[in-house]
Amino acid sequence: MTETIRPPLVFAVAAAYVTLNFFFPGTQVEADFVLSGLLLAGLVVIGIPHGALDVWTYQQRKVNGLSTLQYIIAYLLAIAFVFGFWMAFPVMGLALFLALSAWHFGQADISMWGLRQGGWMWGTLALAMVLVWHTDEVMQIVGHMGIEQALQQKITAVAPSLQWIAVIGWFAAAARAIYLRNAHWLWTLGMLAFTPWIPLLLAFGMYFVGQHSFAGWWHLQNETHMRSTELWLKALPFSLGAWSLIALGVWFLTFGVNSDLQATSGAFFMLIGCISIPHIFESHWFLRNDAGE
C-alpha cells in the first residue's frame, strides 16, 4: 500500500464505520467484527513485525557494542525489568508507558511527514484523541493493571476538561497542517476525529495499525530499500517470539482470575507496553540514523 493511498483509505474506513453505525445501528456487531478482523490482520502483518525488526536495525546501525545474541538477551532483560517495575509500581509504569508512547508515536509520524519539531506534542494529542472520549472503557482496563479506584475517579472527574483541551489541540494541529499543506497529516486528523464514536480498542487499533505501524514500516523500507515481503520474513522469528511472550504474559496475569474482555485487554496492553519500551528506544536511535543525525 503506497503512502499516497493509505491515509485517505484509513480515513475512509473510520468514516464508513461511524456512518454505518449511525444510520444502521443494528449492524454494529457485524461492523465491529469486520473492523476487528482488519486490525488483527494489520497487527500480524506490520504491527508486531515493525517492532520485531529491532535486532536487525541494531545490526544495521553498526554499533560497536553487543553481539546479536548479547543484544537479544539485553532486550529480554529490559522487558523483564519493565514488567517487574510495572507490577511493583503500576501508576508509574502506566504513566511511563503513556509518555514514552506519545514520544514514539509523534517521532515516527513527524519524521515521516518531513517535519523536525513537535513530535511529542503531536503524539500526546493523538493518544488523547483516542483515550479521553472513552474514559469508562479506559478505567475498566487500567483497573486490571492495578490502578486504584480513587485515582480512577480523579481521572474521570477531569475527563471533560481533557476533552476540551484535545479539541483545541486538534484544531491547532489542523491549522498547522493546512498552513504546511500537509495532506497526510490532515487525513490522519480526520481519522482521529471519528474515534469518539468508535469503541476504545478499535479506535486505538485504527491509529496504532493504520497510522503508527505503517509509519514505522515506511521508515524501515526507506532506510533499507527492501520490499515488505523481505522485511516481514526477517521479522518472522522475532514476531513469533513476541506473540509467545504476549500469550505467556496474558496467561500469567489472568490465570485463576475470572477474566472478561477488560481484564484480558489490561493484561494485553501491559505486555505490549513492556515489549514496546525497549523498542521505543531502538526506534529512536534508528530514526536518528535514518535522518543522518
- Main beta-sheet annotation: none
Mean pLDDT: 86
Segments where pLDDT lies below 50 for 5+ residues? none
- Tell me what portion of residues adopts beta-strand conformation: under 5%
Query: How many separate domains?
Result: 1
Count of alpha and pi helical runs: 13
Number of strands: 0
Alpha-carbon Rg, integer: 19 Å
What is the percent of helical residues?
over 70%
The termini sit apart by 28 Å
H/E series: HHHHHHHHHHHHH
Shape: globular
Q: Structural class of the secondary elements?
A: mainly alpha
Quick synopsis:
The protein has helices spanning 6-23, 28-47, 49-52, 54-60, 68-88, 90-112, 119-131, 135-143, 149-180, 183-193, 200-224, 228-254, 261-290. With 293 residues, the chain is mostly helical. The chain has one domain (6-281).
Tell me what the structure shows:
This protein has 293 residues and is an all-alpha fold. It has one domain (6-281). It has 13 helices and no strands. It has helices spanning 6-23, 28-47, 49-52, 54-60, 68-88, 90-112, 119-131, 135-143, 149-180, 183-193, 200-224, 228-254, 261-290. Helix 1 (6-23) runs antiparallel to helix 2 (28-47), helix 5 packs across helix 13 and helix 6 crosses helix 7 (119-131). The longest helix is centred in the middle third of the chain and has 32 residues, at 149-180. The chain is globular, with a radius of gyration of 19 Å. The model has no long low-confidence stretch (mean pLDDT 86).
